[in-house]
Amino acid sequence: MNVYYGIDRLNKIMKKPCFTVLYLNTDQGFLEYHEKKIKQRMNVFYQRKQSNGEWDDAKKSNRIFTVYRCFIYEKPFEGNLDFILSNNFNADENNVSEEERLIIKDKLRQALLLAYPDLRIAKGQSKLIF
Hints:
Helix content is 37%, strand content 22%. It is built from 4 helices and 4 strands, in the order ββαβαβαα. The protein has helices spanning 31-41, 52-59, 81-91, 98-115; strands at residues 2-8, 18-24, 42-49, 65-71. Strands 3-1-2-4 form a 4-stranded antiparallel sheet, sandwiched between helices.
């Protein structure tokens, strides 16, 4: 099954801009129908196959989709592009290779800057380093 990375389309239900990771949890057919619904809901900029660990978790789920959202201008991100990128990069470290995570990070950077050009790009040290 697939994992979709994208930016939700804003409408009267989804009013705040967010970056979304959506997991498809079923292999019961209707893949074209599910992909059509996903593309109606969000602008997909990257798609990958689920790892074995992710797929084992998906088999136990009773939902068709599992959605994780990062609201761009809300806490803890508050429009900080580097923090959004590092958060997503670290979240995938157990299931995705580092090469693929770097590809996702680059595509996420391009998509977010294209959709939201007012994002802050940190200059200098953006977190405490011990």
